[in-house]
Design a protein that fits this description.
By secondary structure, this protein is α/β, with parallel strands linked by helices. Helices cover 34% and strands 16% of the residues. The longest helix is centred in the middle third of the chain and has 19 residues.
């Protein structure tokens, strides 16, 4: 039964939980972490770790996407970001870094991002970026917004994209519009020969609707990062991630029964900043996590230690700050697999996931989704 709380006369709200509110329960069995598998597969594409990068220019360049792919994850390039608009991205990023150094006003950097994203999209630049990733031999994934998905996808397919991510802050299978033709995800996905991952969502019903469009994966959340994303402040909309992941996992189970066996992957995007958050996301029912800010510390990240999401560049309602730069002292391999001398869970993210699975006795991700959970008092 849903836990409803009365917030006033005649008005109730559902109690929901963040990842910080829950803990994983050890079981009666443990095993060696060498016997644990973190492999994950979506459609025909297999990955060594359940990692998808949040599609922000702060952490994903064509080169970074290749590096993530070679390490066993999936790098997602933003097909509406800087690499799609500017031939000299280094110069564009230099402008952004200067804005953060020259002004204490957080709006200054956001204004620069808005100006940079006002430049027109150039399909030749997108095709060049996609070619660089494709030529490396790793899986090619790009993100498009729901508003531009129909327009950009034919050229992206021609360029060699293998997985399409249709992502907005909040997305639905049914968009009502007074002007123009809204994107019909069901017919859009049905016309494609590649898997589509769509999101973000925050509740059971919307997750189920997206699954029924034919999406191969559903993104839960909107990339919430404390001190960076401001969707809750700007729109009053928030997604307590532990509950949202569990709800989407319930929709996945019901959809599996409804279709007689079609499995849709749940991808957690938000509130995942430590290795413990990665483990708890999988424990709540996610198949993979979408990491953003933790990867800003990698030497390969193009943002020079700064972090922001694509929502920062919205021309009228930005919903992300540009976070202060962090030291880029570790490469991606060490961030993902260690070794680590930092006890805070910010490095060796997937080595720690294997250790958590081993300590609770589970050998693969599917089994680990059944681990016991408690709520912090």
């Amino acid at each position: 039964m849903r836990d409803l709380v009365e917030i006033g006369m005649g008005r109730t709200a559902r109690r929901a939980y963040e990842l910080d509110d829950i803990e994983i329960i050890p079981s009666r069995r443990t095993r060696s972490s060498k016997d644990v598998s973190t492999t994950w597969q979506i459609d025909a594409y297999r990955f060594d770790i359940p990692l998808i990068t949040h599609p922000t220019d702060a952490i994903v360049s064509p080169g970074t996407a290749v590096a993530v792919g070679e390490l066993g994850g999936l790098g997602v390039l933003n097909a509406e970001g800087l690499w799609a608009r500017h031939s000299d991205v280094d110069e564009a990023l230099f402008r952004l870094v200067q804005a953060t150094e020259d002004s204490e006003d957080p709006a200054a950097a956001v204004k620069v991002l808005q100006e940079l994203h006002a430049a027109p999209l150039r399909m030749d630049l997108i095709a060049l970026a996609v070619k660089q990733i494709r030529d490396s031999g790793v899986t090619v994934a790009v993100r498009v917004s729901p508003q531009r998905a129909a327009e950009l996808t034919p050229d992206l397919l021609a360029a060699g994209v293998e997985i399409l991510v249709v992502q907005g802050t909040i997305i639905s299978a049914e968009h009502v519009s007074r002007g123009g033709e809204p994107l019909n995800l069901k017919s859009f996905i049905a016309d494609l020969d590649i898997p589509v991952i769509a999101g973000g969502v925050g509740d059971y019903r919307t997750a189920m609707h997206l699954m029924r469009t034919g999406a191969a994966g559903v993104i839960v959340g909107y990339g919430y990062t404390p001190g960076v994303t401001t969707t809750d402040s700007v729109l009053g909309i928030g997604v307590p991630m532990a509950t949202a992941i569990a709800d989407a996992a319930a929709a996945r189970r019901d959809y599996l029964d409804e279709t007689g066996g079609r499995y849709v992957h749940v991808i957690a995007d938000g509130g995942v900043t430590t290795s413990g958050d990665v483990a708890k996301s999988i424990a709540c029912g996610a198949d993979a996590v979408m990491l953003g800010e933790p990867l800003a510390a990698a030497t390969e990240a193009p943002g020079q230690g700064l972090y922001w999401t694509a929502a920062s560049a919205h021309p009228s309602v930005p919903r992300s700050l540009v976070a202060d730069a962090v030291d880029q002292e570790l490469d991606l391999r060490q961030l993902l697999f260690g070794p680590s001398a930092d006890p805070r869970g910010v490095t060796n993210l997937f080595g720690a996931l294997k250790r958590a699975m081993a300590k609770t006795g589970y050998s693969d991700l599917k089994e680990f989704q059944k681990v016991g959970l408690t709520i912090r008092g």
